[in-house]
Specification:
- Belongs to the serpin family.
- It contains six helices and nine strands, in the order H-H-H-H-E-E-E-H-E-H-E-E-E-E-E.
- It has 242 residues and is an alpha+beta fold.
- The protein has two domains: 173 residues, Antithrombin, Chain I, domain 2 (2-Layer Sandwich); 42 residues, no CATH class.
- Strands 4-3-5 form a three-stranded mixed sheet, sandwiched between helices.
- Helix 2 runs antiparallel to helix 3.
- It is globular.
């Protein structure tokens, strides 16, 4: 995959996000008119983690992909991004106030590769991630259970089986690494919608079909930030903060 546009050093590579989103949506997002939610932000951080443990041609390609020139640049940007996306109490991992936002990473490395202290220090210190050696070859079921337990905890129980039984068929002595990211968000609108004002309105599908669905509505005097662009519209609704 080519990335002809480079991001400025020290800034988040928005082109990477757009290209990734475009490729995924083309392959998955339009199937049967389904909805798709992706986090290029998460992919960027995981690729940054891979870069920390890479060298040679692989590292050069990751620099090109991430729009960075050095590991120092990558780690500095990752630290800033994680701090912005993780307003939690580091002493107990609990989010402070509203909205509830959690952004965490984890790495399970084959014990045959041996975790270097320098790599583990960066993973834990900069990326706020757990990093540990595991036995993919002989204890695949234990690894799957551990990854699933991590996912369930970090997503407040929303994702309980990140790795299914099918994963056991591909985890073996050739497995080197499992990287995981969990982005959790729960917020409450600053101005709640009155359920009694829900109205049946016409919803237009991309294929031209029309459906009547329940729409949230508000009082006429309530104002929200709204902007119309060429081909799309944006509505900004503030969340309650505390």
């Amino acid at each position: 995959m080519e990335f002809p546009i480079q991001a400025e050093t020290g800034s988040f590579n928005t082109y990477f996000c757009l290209l990734l989103a475009n490729n995924i949506l083309q392959e998955k997002g339009l199937e049967n008119g389904s909805n798709t939610v992706i986090s290029p932000f998460s992919f960027h951080l995981l690729l940054s983690l891979i870069a920390v443990g890479s060298k040679g041609r692989t590292l050069e390609q990751l620099f090109h992909c991430l729009g960075s020139k050095s590991l120092e640049d990558i780690n500095s940007l990752a630290s800033q991004m994680i701090d912005l996306a993780s307003p939690f109490n580091e002493s107990n991992g609990v989010s402070i106030g509203e909205p509830d936002l959690s952004f965490v990473n984890a790495a399970w490395v084959a014990q045959s590769l041996k975790l270097k202290p320098s790599f583990q220090e960066i993973v834990e210190g900069v990326y706020h991630a757990i990093a540990k050696e595991v036995d993919f070859a002989n204890k695949a079921e234990q690894v799957v259970a551990e990854v699933n337990a991590w996912a369930e905890t970090t997503t407040r129980g929303l994702i309980r089986n990140l790795l299914t039984a099918e994963a056991l068929k591909v985890i073996n002595e050739h497995t080197a690494l499992i990287l995981a990211n969990a982005l959790y968000f729960k917020g409450t609108w600053a101005q709640l919608f009155d359920t009694s004002k829900t109205k049946q309105r016409v919803f237009h599908l991309l294929n031209g079909e029309k459906f009547h669905v329940p729409f949230m509505t508000s009082h006429r005097f309530e104002r929200f930030l709204y902007k119309s662009f060429n081909g799309y519209k944006i509505l900004k609704l503030p969340y309650k903060t505390s």
